[in-house]
Design a protein that fits this description.
This is 3-oxoacyl-[acyl-carrier-protein] reductase. It comes from Achromobacter pulmonis. InterPro entries: NAD(P)-bd_dom_sf, Sc_DH/Rdtase_CS, SDR_fam. There is one protein chain. The protein is about 45% helix and about 15% strand. With about 260 residues, the chain is an alpha/beta fold. The chain has a single domain, classed as NAD(P)-binding Rossmann-like Domain (Rossmann fold, 3-Layer(aba) Sandwich), CATH 3.40.50. A 7-stranded parallel β-sheet has the order 3-2-1-4-5-6-7, sandwiched between helices. Helix 5 links the parallel strand 5 and strand 6. The longest helix has 26 residues. The chain is globular, with a radius of gyration of 18 Å. The relative contact order is 0.14.
Length: about 260
Amino acid sequence: MEHLDDFNGCRVMVSAGASGIGRAIARAFHERGARVHVCDVSEQALAAAGAELPGLGVFRADVAAEADVDAWFAHALADLGGLDVLVNNAGIAGPTSAVGELSVEDWDRTMAVNVRGQFLCVRRALAPLRQSDRAAIINLSSVAGRLGYPMRAPYAASKWAVVGLTQSLAIELGDDDITVNAILPGIVESERVNQVVAAKAGLRGIPEADMRAEILQHVSLHRTVPMDDIARTALFLAGAAGRSITGQCMNICAGVQTLR
């Protein structure tokens, strides 16, 4: 049986792959022998990722900008010589606001990064993926892509859109033997979540531990999700065990029941 973790020679591109979940995914593929190329909007994060992972390809790009995506793919494909796995990880949180108070600019920017960015990357990835015998597209959505999320409508709407894009592409690209799946993370253990907990605790005037417990009250496992769990799911979907899985939404969320 083929070793599930054998990615030697596999060519992988990860958007927003220099920090957070993207970096964890890039690291996981890199550690298993894949050739990995990432883009990010932060030069500092790209430098840090490149220092941590020797041989990692890095490129500054905003996935919402068509010219940036075209330039990243031109650079990465010249470096990699082809493509086997595209991980559409780039996304932003968007505003926290009631719908009536949202600005059009905030709405448009959230949709541009979270949805338009995935479309732009997939469009450029199709030709090289059709030349691969292990082609996979992995789109990062969110548990907010299956649940309503009050005060976070742009984010939730964009993540539901990613699910629709994923399931549509899975059907459309089936004849090319390209698998297309989405990962829906829950509350991921990260510095950003720690900052959210601290901010909410400060507003409420309660200890951070109490705030965290309240947030996790509607999570079955009553804990956050380690980033490495998201990365391992990406490996599974791109590996031998995932070759017959397509059009699916993998909820890696510790059992989130509702979002508050």
